[in-house]
Write a structure and sequence with these properties.
By secondary structure, the chain is mainly α. The protein is built from six helices and no strands.
Length: 177
């Protein structure tokens, strides 16, 4: 029985010394392991930034372009207004705004929530503007009348919503740097 106690005591001694050696080794190499993990994270983050930053910049660029393209002042220059009615111009402008928005909808994953909210609100405000102004004249009026009323309405605004939106988008973009 004595040899069993001696055997158990030897096992306990070996286990304790093994645990002690393992603990010392672990505590010694732990900082190196952590440093390696941190270095891997840093390299991954650098690679991600290198890949994603150009995409984010392009998305902000597209949001600026979208805001410029749905500005009625710019849209009316792109659309021929002679020979169509006010209601036809209204439908064409609305379709153009919706197409532009759908073309850029995936960019929301690369821009901030602030920028995306501004872009969506600008789209909605532009649609409301066109629909409200269109409702103030007969649908069969010449489209030039609708154009004049839209441009007059925009000129009478205290704050240009398109310039304000662009300023917010640009300010938001500056946060990336």
């Amino acid at each position: 029985m004595e040899w069993v106690q001696g055997f158990i005591l030897d096992i306990v001694k070996l286990t304790a010394s093994g645990l002690l050696v393992f603990s010392v080794i672990y505590l010694t190499i732990r900082p190196a392991i952590e440093e390696g993990r941190n270095l891997e994270r840093l390299n991954l983050k650098k690679a991600t930034v290198k890949t994603v930053l150009p995409l984010r910049l392009q998305a902000y660029e597209r949001m600026v372009l979208f805001a410029e393209r749905i500005n009625p002042s710019a849209m009316l220059l792109r659309f021929p207004v002679l020979g169509i009615t006010a209601s036809e111009l209204q439908l064409a402008l609305i379709a153009e705004i919706r197409n532009e928005f759908q073309h850029n909808i995936t960019q929301q994953i690369y821009v901030s929530n602030v920028t995306w909210s501004v872009v969506k609100q600008l789209k909605e405000d532009t649609l409301v503007l066109i629909n409200n102004v269109s409702g103030s004249i007969p649908p069969d009026s010449p489209s030039i009348e609708l154009s004049k009323i839209i441009l007059t309405h925009l000129a009478n605004l205290d704050v240009d919503p398109y310039e304000s939106s662009l300023a917010i988008i640009k300010q938001d973009l500056q946060k990336l740097f």
